[in-house]
Design goal:
The structure is a single chain. By secondary structure, the protein is an alpha+beta fold. The protein folds into three domains: about 150 residues, no CATH class; about 230 residues, Histidine kinase-like ATPase, C-terminal domain (Heat Shock Protein 90, 2-Layer Sandwich); about 80 residues, Beta-lactamase Inhibitory Protein, Chain:B, domain 1 (2-Layer Sandwich), CATH 3.30.1450. Helix content is about 55%, strand content about 10%. It is built from 16 helices and nine strands. The chain has a five-stranded mixed beta sheet with strand order 1-2-3-5-4. Strands 6-7-8-9 form a four-stranded mixed beta sheet. α10 runs antiparallel to α11. The longest helix is centred in the N-terminal third of the chain and has 85 residues.
């Protein structure tokens, strides 16, 4: 029992309830209850205390049970004026808290029916049902539906802003991730360039120093110095491989910098590589075949790197062997080919010469470069026990060659992230502004109320005509005229305008059935109305009166 009671309390008063909220809600409940009791006392119904207590209780329960509170407030307001402020606040709460449109519409329809029924029960004898229906619909739209539309607009706007903030935060996180990935790709590109360019130069230094080390014309001290130089070059190459291994991320592709000039010469720089190798004492033959064609920047750079890596490998693994470099412009692709036979036997023992330093990443990087521009690289031994490395590269390159360009635009991405996100377009975001739907709702309610107002004015004018007897008609009707003939000349009447006049005027004839009307003669006295009365008995007009009475 205690557990059920606690559960009911938690349901009726959902927390958290800090002391500040408890004080605020209690003060508002007392204020609403006191105002309702004051209105009820002013109306003179004698229910001021019950209405005040009920209003205070419903105010406290309003956040937990918005729909039931709205229905109870509507039913109470139809018969009592004191709960009108509660109905306004309950409508606002229902619009703000209920999300399902079907449940929201159903709640307001039921509330309006209750509001109308209690109004009909209260004013059943003083007004026509049609008039009560119109007045109740207009009043309910103004005091309940309009606050609900405002509450729903505020709630939807708050939800939309929260969603946009969350989306912007997510976009910011994604932009930071993109920058991080771009930096990783840039590190990989730097590592690849270090491997290709510095490795080639260190290989040339090693070849030069190796050739000097076996030169018989040098003294022992000079040969020893050259050996130290060669060992330093080999150590530098080993450290370079280690650094490249740290920077290299095999899971990240190596995107070439499209649209930018090659770092070192492109195909025009291949002849420079050949001359450098010749200067190092290697026998290198260079040939160019076919009609020269323009190349994409990425393809131009990839061709240079293929020749550079092949020459570097030939110097390291086959020192002294002749090298053939061929550049062929085929109909559909550029072919870069480097071939060297097996290394000849060297005369003498080379002091301090160790195995060639290789990180195993040069050919992998070349294949990745070729793949990104839509080409391929083949490397392998030849039948003459030599080695051949050839790259086949399309002239235009692949469309996706520049995707994920890490070498350019990183600073721009950083600035984009730091400067904030671009403004969010609500239409592009797939969300409509809540102001649109709420404005449509307000427009519909306004037009409905305007229509009811026009209908009420017309109904009021028509009711006034039905309740007014012309002075000439009153004078022409004579006592003793059959009731049917009199009623044929009189207007239909309207209890809404004449209900207050029943029982007024001279003493009623005994057993007579009387009808009251307004007279077309306007009273010259403020606060008094001209009233006419017709009394019938046994189907005959037995009395007619024209008198003044208080409004």
């Amino acid at each position: 029992m205690a557990r059920a009671w606690k559960k009911a309390v938690r349901t009726a008063f959902p927390g958290p309830w800090p002391p500040r909220r408890v004080v605020g809600q209690s003060a508002l409940a007392l204020l609403m209850g006191g105002f309702a009791a004051l209105l009820e006392a002013a109306a003179g119904s004698g229910l001021a205390v019950p209405v005040g207590l009920g209003t205070a209780l419903l105010w406290v329960l309003r956040p937990a049970f918005p729909a039931p509170v709205l229905m109870l407030a509507a039913a109470a307001t139809g018969g009592s004026l004191g709960t009108l402020p509660l109905l306004v606040c309950a409508g606002w709460t229902v619009g703000a808290r209920m999300r399902r449109v079907g449940a929201l519409v159903g709640t307001f329809v039921v509330s309006w029916v209750l509001f109308t029924v209690t109004g009909v029960l209260k004013d059943a004898g003083s007004a026509s049902p049609k008039l009560i229906f119109g007045l109740s619909l207009g009043a309910f739209l103004l005091v309940a539906v309009l606050p609900a539309l405002w509450g729903r607009y505020r709630a939807q706007r708050r939800a939309l802003l929260d969603a946009l903030r969350e989306r912007n935060d997510q976009l910011l996180r994604e932009r930071v991730m993109v920058v991080h990935q771009a930096r990783l790709r840039e590190r990989h590109r730097i590592a690849q360039d270090m491997h290709d360019s510095l490795g080639h130069q260190l290989a040339l230094i090693s070849v030069h120093s190796g050739a000097l080390e076996v030169d018989r014309t040098l003294s022992d001290r000079q040969r020893e110095a050259v050996g130290v130089l060669r060992q330093a070059a080999v150590a530098a190459m080993r450290e370079l491989r280690e650094v490249v291994g740290v920077l290299h991320d095999e899971s990240t592709a190596v995107p070439p910098a499209t649209g930018a000039a090659p770092v070192r010469g492109g195909v025009d720089g291949i002849e420079g590589l050949v001359e450098s190798s010749r200067a190092a004492g290697a026998e290198v033959t260079f040939s160019r075949e076919g009609e020269r064609r323009p190349l994409a920047a990425a393809v131009d750079h990839a061709a240079y790197r293929v020749a550079q890596e092949a020459l570097t490998n030939a110097h390291k693994h086959a020192p002294g062997a002749p090298i053939t470099v061929a550049l062929r412009y085929e109909p559909d692709a550029l072919v870069v080919e480097v071939v060297n036979p097996c290394a000849p036997e060297l005369v003498g023992v080379r002091v301090g010469v160790g195995p060639a330093v290789s990180g195993g990443q040069g050919l992998t990087g070349l294949r990745e470069r070729a793949r990104l521009v839509g080409g391929m690289v083949h490397a392998g031994p030849t039948p003459e026990q030599g080695f051949r490395l050839a790259g086949v590269l399309p002239y235009e390159g692949s469309e996706g060659a520049g995707d994920g360009d890490a070498g350019a635009g990183i600073a721009g991405v950083d600035d984009w992230v730091l400067d904030g996100l671009p403004p969010v377009d609500e239409e592009r975001d797939g969300r409509r502004s809540p102001a649109i739907g709420c404005a449509v709702g307000v427009g519909v309610v306004g037009l409905t109320v305007l229509g009811l107002l026009i209908w009420g004015v017309l109904a009021f004018i028509q009711g006034t005509d039905h309740a007014t007897v012309q002075k000439q008609v009153y004078d022409e009707i004579q006592i003793g005229t059959p009731e049917a003939d009199v009623l044929r000349r009189l207007p239909p009447g309207s209890t809404f305008f004449t209900e207050a006049y029943k029982g007024t005027g001279p003493t009623l004839p005994e057993g007579a059935d009387c009808r009251w009307y307004l007279s077309s003669d306007l009273s010259e006295t403020w606060g008094q109305d001209n009233v006419v009365r017709f009394c019938f008995k046994d189907g005959v007009l037995v009395d007619k009166q024209h008198y003044l009475t208080k409004s």
